[in-house]
Amino acid sequence: MTVQVELMEKILAGTVVLDLTRFFSGPQATLFLAGLGAEVIKIDDPATGDPTTFSPPFAGPEGVSFDRRTHADMGIAYLKRARGKKSVGLNLKDPEGLAAFMKLVRSADVVVDNFSSGVADRLGIGYDALRERNPQIVHCSLTGYGSTGSERHLKAYDLMVQAAVGMMSITGQPGSPPAKAGSPLSDAIAGTFAAMGILAALLHRNRTGVGQSVDVSMADCLFALMFDEPFDCYDSLGLPLRQGNRIMRFSPFNAYRTRDGWIVAGAATQDDWNALLRVMGKEDLADAPQMNSLAWRLANNAAVDSLVSAWTGRFASAEVLRRLNEAKVPCSPVREIGDVMRWRQLKERDMMAPLWNPLAGAAMQAQGPGFPIKFSASKASYDAPAPLPGQHSREVLVDLGGLSAEEVDALAERGAVSAP
User: The CATH number of 16-226+348-418 is which of 3.30.70.1230, 3.40.50.10540, 3.40.30.10, 2.30.30.100?
Assistant: First the structure.
């Protein structure tokens, strides 16, 4: 019997998140929360706004560009990261603006910031101040190196973090200069861990009634993921830190040139290796003591790669992939981004969505990622586009903060609030 499961409301529906974050790591965390249904309220300074709103590259009626060609052009980063969120312009350095924010805290569930260590406390919005207003509040702080430790005050962006934890020392080919990963991984990973930490703290609060602070370090998060690999043992194993496309536990495991491009393939198990030998017409090597030994292949990886490359180089990529897939040998084409954007697998899983520009009132050429987790009994998606700056100031301050319309007008007159 087939059971029809009706989609529930989003998992975090009814959860209010005050978002004080900027740039990537924090907005990534709150974007995930918005996709799960939280009411995420961006709090921006009325004078400066979100720094990505009108920063290049832009998307507008005349396409994408590094120069702002029309008044409707908006930053692509903003259009991606502010989806599903509301925008309130509120000056936290103004006493009355700070008081209005604290009224929002009373009704909120989560406050997220990615200020440098100590800044929130100096502004009067650190965890101790927040829990005085709302003992059940969950506070998440994202910083480069955490809120404790001797280097907690150092300023950091993704490049600095990748360098600090050794990512740049292990990226690239042996003998090459330091190189960062092609995307800002430490930002993205820290945002993902922050969302997980916030969810865990909300679950704890639901069980105990107690809120708490969540301390997320970009360096900790990136190190936690990369250090699954035993890099501290490489020297003893006689391995260079830079392994290129290899993983030192598998051989073969690399990128291989074909007649018209590149593919990747790898053998993580003995079955994979035997299947690859059959595909290459090298079944005789299955009985060779050396080639049949993973330890020998790891120590002599260049010889193994030469064997595989000689075979892949005889065929076009499509033919190599067809044969490998039929034999169930793990493989993939090396897609360039244009190919990725045409890849039907991602499209079929709703992982690409046109970005809506609220100033232009139209969808842009640029696209943003969809929500990456699929649930069987609830929805997760970014249902609303990025908001206009300050678009929801009046609504939020009245409905959530309990201010009167006259009080909001007074705040707007003194520049503490932007209320279009």
Answer: 3.40.50.10540
Other CB atoms within 10 A of residue 91 CB: 23
**What mean pLDDT comes out for the span 20-29?**
97
The pLDDT tens digits for 138-163 are: 999 999 999 999 999 999 999 999 99
Q: Of 66, 9, 83, give the one whose Cα is nearest residue 369.
A: 83
Rounded Cα gap, residues 369 and 78, in angstroms: 13
Rg (CA), the chain: 26
Question: How many beta carbons lie within 10 A of that of residue 316, not counting itself?
Answer: 13
State the DSSP string of 285-343.
Answer: GGG-TTTT-HHHHHHTHHHHHHHHHHHHTTS-HHHHHHHHHHTT--EEE---HHHHHT-
Answer for the pair 59, 74: CB distance below 8 angstroms, yes or no: yes
Nearest to 40 by CA among 11, 18, 25, 14: 18
Q: What is the pLDDT of residue 5?
A: 44
187 is catalytic: yes
Catalytic residue among 73, 187, 220, 305, which? 187
> Of 362, 357, 416, 268, whose CA–CA distance to 82 is shortest?
357
Q: pLDDT, tens digit, for every residue of 331-362?
A: 999 999 999 999 999 999 999 999 999 999 99
Residues of the chain with CATH 3.30.1540.10: 245-257+262-333
Nearest 5°: the CA angle 274, 275, 278 is: 90
Chain segment 308-329, per-residue pLDDT in tens: 999 999 999 999 999 999 999 9
Which of 297, 398, 386, 335 has its CA nearest to residue 59?
386
Q: How far apart are CA 405 and CA 385, in angstroms?
A: 26
